[in-house]
Design brief:
Radius of gyration: 24 Å
Number of domains: 2
Largest sheet: 6 strands, antiparallel, barrel
Number of strands: 15
Number of helices: 1
Distance between the termini: 58 Å
Shape: globular
Helix content: 10-25%
Order of helices and strands: HEEEEEEEEEEEEEEE
Strand order of the largest sheet: 1-3-6-7-8-15
């Protein structure tokens, strides 16, 4: 093999190596853009500020607060009153040509102690009117990393997956779906609709929110 041929071969091999590195770097962002959920669950929240589809618009920030304390799958305690933040994706008041009004809210971040936040993907699973008694009708348990919808069994022997006190009605079961105790409002796949002129959730109303958790707190 003469010197010219050897140099050409080295250049060719260098080009192949560079091409391989470029391909790897090109594919890396697409893999990172699809994070995997590390846990999921459902819990009760309180609407702290009225949500009105006639006043909200797409992209508006939304904030609710947890109605009761609960634990994440890793044992982290989330206190009552913890802020869950999100934004509006659709908001529409019923006009003359519309059959109904509409409101969709998704949740992005859950505040934790010491200023940390948990990245989540959440949607409204159920809606309830404000409680007319001192104890909110909520059930408290522990989030699940896998398995059924939302909660790990707290009592393996009985198969129960709720920790409910004797004086707490089972109305706001974390597995509940849809609208409860109210007329004229419907919920399907996280989308709230009403035949009325607007979808309105007054402050102190309760919701069950289902979330997927992405990664550790930051």
């Amino acid at each position: 093999m003469n010197r010219v041929t050897l140099i050409a071969l080295v250049v060719l091999l260098a080009g192949v190596v560079c091409s391989g590195q470029t391909a790897s770097s090109d594919t890396a962002p697409s893999q990172a853009a699809t994070p995997r959920a590390t846990g999921h669950g459902a819990f009760a929240v309180k609407v702290s500020k009225t949500l009105d589809s006639s006043k909200l618009k797409e992209g508006d920030a939304v904030e609710v607060e947890t109605a009761e304390p609960f634990k994440l799958a890793d044992g982290t305690l989330v206190s009552k009153g913890t802020k869950l933040m999100g934004h509006v994706t659709t908001s529409k008041a019923r006009a003359k040509r519309d059959a109904e009004s509409e409101l969709t809210v998704v949740f992005d971040k859950l505040n934790l102690a010491n200023g940390k936040q948990l990245m989540v993907k959440g949607s409204v699973q159920a809606v309830f009117p404000p409680p007319d008694y001192s104890n909110p009708t909520v059930a408290v348990s522990t989030m699940s990393k896998s398995g059924g919808p939302g909660y790990q069994p707290s009592d393996i022997k009985s198969g129960s997956n709720l920790e409910v006190s004797n004086n707490t009605p089972s109305l706001m079961d974390p597995k509940a779906v849809g609208v409860h105790g109210m007329h004229g409002l419907e919920l399907k796949d996280g989308v709230l609709t009403s035949k009325g002129k607007n979808v309105k959730l007054d402050g102190s109303m309760r919701m069950i929110v289902h979330i997927d958790i992405f990664g550790p707190p930051v």
